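Lay summary. Proteins are chains of building blocks that fold into shapes, and those shapes determine what they do. In this project we predict the shape from the chain. Here is one chain we studied, written as its sequence of building blocks.
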Amino acid sequence: QVEIVESGGGSVQPGGSLRLSCVVSGFSLELYAIGWFRQAPGKEREGVSCMNSRDGSDGNSYYADAVKGRFTISRDNAKNTAYLEMNSLKPEDTAVYYCAAPEDASCFLHSGDYRDPDGMDYWGKGTLVTVSS
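And here is the predicted shape, written in a compact code that computers can read:
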């Protein structure tokens, strides 16, 4: 049974940093792509970042324009854990952040856009990030 659990959310002032963690079980993270999404109040869920697996794909990482240069996705396959390092946080980054995975090594299995939530097969329950002074 696949399970994805996010942690690391919290409240931070603008300009601050947080690191989100995503622990997966029921499959070997090494073989699959992993992505991060977010949903702000009253808005649709949007893709933030995605990383292909190196085993079966190219290991490339992708970032939404809104977070490029500030967020970094990474993974520790030995721990079956993915991370999202978030720096220079802004109030508009406030959202529930979700970790998700497709049943494939690529972020583009189901959709030509890695930011499309329909491209993911498994989801965590999310962790809340609040950026406010």
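What the prediction tells us: Residues 23 and 103 are 16 Å apart (CA to CA).
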